[in-house]
Design a protein that fits this description.
With 570 residues, the chain is α/β, with parallel strands linked by helices. Among the domains are: 12-183, Rossmann fold (3-Layer(aba) Sandwich), CATH 3.40.50.980; 326-421, Luciferase, domain 3 (Roll), CATH 2.30.38; 440-569, ANL, C-terminal domain (GMP Synthetase, Chain A, domain 3, 2-Layer Sandwich). It is built from 18 helices and 27 strands. Strands 2-1-10-9-11-12-13 form a seven-stranded mixed beta sheet, with helices on both faces. It has a seven-stranded antiparallel beta sheet with strand order 14-15-16-20-19-18-17. Helix 2 (30-44) crosses helix 3 (72-84). It is globular and about 75 Å long.
Amino acid sequence: MGMRTFAQVVRGRVGDTHEGLRFEGRSWTWDEVVREACVRASLLRTFTPIHDRSADGYGPRTHVGILMQNVPDFVFWLLGAALNGDVVVGINPTRRGAELELDIAHAECDLIITENHYLDELAAISLGIPTEHLLNVDTEHYAELLRAHRDADLPEVDPAADDLLLLLFSSGSTGAPKAVICSQGRLGGLTDSMSERIGIHRDSMVYMSLPLFHGHAIMMCLATAANVGATVVMVRKFSASRFAADLHEHRITFFNYVGRMLSYVLNQPAAPIERDNALEVVFGSEASPAEVRLFRERFGCEDVREGYGASEGVLRITPVPGSPDNALGLPAAGVEVEVRDPDTGLECPRAIFDADGVLLNAGEATGELVALGRGPSFEGYYKNPDAMADRLRFDGADFWTGDLGYRDADGYFYFAGRSTDWLRVDGENFGAAAIERILVRFPAFSGAHVLAVADPNTGDQVMAVVTLKPGAVFDAEAFADFLAEQPDLGSKWRPTFVRIVDEVPITGSGKINKAPLRQVAWEAPEVWYAPTRTSPYRPLTDQQRTEFRDAFRANGRANHLPQPEAGAAR
């Protein structure tokens, strides 16, 4: 028997009268969900692809671009395309203007499904498709099209395991588009292992608040629920203020998170309703250990699991019993991971800590996380050979994740940030994540995000962009005292600049988008400055900003100056 496809997973729900989808007071059984998918699949077959992809070996499948919030039609179109053997392009709604236009053109969308919410964004760009190939689900015309296909049966086609199913754009991407390829077989094969891994069962109530254009929602929520026939409780988008009430009302047993979602929840006022929930498992990534502990206490759910995985599907690292605080854990069985120097390709030395847990050799121990022998299992980026070559650099046998980490003497891995979170200060290399874990201990901070800003002479300086807890104010003297008391703060990790913001920009999948923060850097308002590691923090003055600009130009580094206009535009 060959590899199971996702189309076969969907077909397995035919005749299932268990509740499959719940959304804003409406409900569908799984059988009804599949029937709605069949309607979209039938409608989809009336559209002829406008792009010829035969020369690239992709076949005559229709590429369906979906630009919507989490609404039922997104689910129905995704499942309908899967049944048809067509391709779903998850369009990242945080992209705008030329970037959005580039994504749609790069993925060669033949048809675009959208809603009123995004019409202005689409009207501002060239879509490259006939007018009738843009469907707005909020119109009567769309409703008429669906009625014409209301009695559609299951498609007769049986997609192959290696047929392309999803193109998922990396969130917050810049430059050339990078769409991760996911085949029918990959998503179908994930459903059993993922369901078991996160504990999804028939009676699970799965809270899907992450956006469906991203793999987290599709793979951990929709696909696993379809696999076992669990119920998906879907919301248009994540809301920290609604979160506790949703858990209580719908008796949610599972939800997943990324980035700062737990932090946003924990910044809400505590309420008795938080403990009145049915949570069994929570799974996510990038929360701090302190946030995980506090969430367990407030919501009474002990099984909160942090893990690391690549969107490309080639590896995962998860905590195991005995994992040190702050550690990602160990790779899954059968996967070998190393930390390698991105310049030489050689393995980095193991991390060395002192008695207080301070990392003593961050510069030499930090490198890129690499999955050995996993290059061939990487399905690739759609028509982006340069990005593929970067992931398969040196010999093509190993997969370079683009994420930074280090590994201790016992083999446990630690996350050190994205490759874009790499800082080089006074000749020492280190990642941003370790500093962020320290800064969020400061009582007034609800979040802390570290980034590199150029030094006028060479290398980088450390900048922290922070948000404050409700009612808190930034006490510069207390913050300086706090930093001096932290035993694990590296000698070159003290922020030179601290910027206070009401909120930080996020990608469509809930991750922090540091690109506009880097572009504005110290040209932003409400920036505090400490020129040396013993200096007090003072508000940055206009005169100091002028002196910085002059220094960059005098040292021939004018191209490294902040670009506040570009940052504001994003």
